[in-house]
Design a protein that fits this description.
Elements: E1 12-15, E2 32-35, E3 38-41, H1 56-66, H2 74-80, H3 90-100
Antiparallel strand pairs: 1-2, 2-3
Length: about 110
């Protein structure tokens, strides 16, 4: 869906977080968009493992971060800050939980 919404007349490439070209499928946090030799790193709100979806694995990551058992670094930290208040806290955990449980339809 993301690729269909890019309105540019330039050649672009999208690579996943491992550097492999993406031609279809999900685009996750840590993927890169290259346009005119300029590289942009993509952040998908709530996608804390870079697989392009917000699921139980992401919920577990933010829960363990909240408990102090793990760290979130770089773009994954920004992906976890779903309410954009510059900190990852219980409010972000609750929002990801509610999205996962389909109590809300948008993060």
């Amino acid at each position: 869906e993301f690729k269909n919404n890019i309105l540019i007349n330039n050649v672009y490439t999208i690579k996943n977080s491992s550097g492999e070209l993406v031609s279809d499928g999900l685009i996750g946090t840590g993927s890169t968009l290259v346009v005119n030799d300029i590289e942009y790193t993509l952040i998908v709100k709530g996608d804390l493992n870079g697989d392009g979806s917000v699921d139980l694995a992401d919920l577990a990551k933010i829960y363990n971060y909240y408990l102090g058992k793990t760290k979130l670094n770089g773009y994954y930290y920004y992906a976890a800050d779903v309410n954009k208040d510059t900190s990852v806290d219980l409010a972000d955990l609750a929002k990801i939980y509610n999205f996962y449980r389909k109590k809300i339809n948008k993060i």
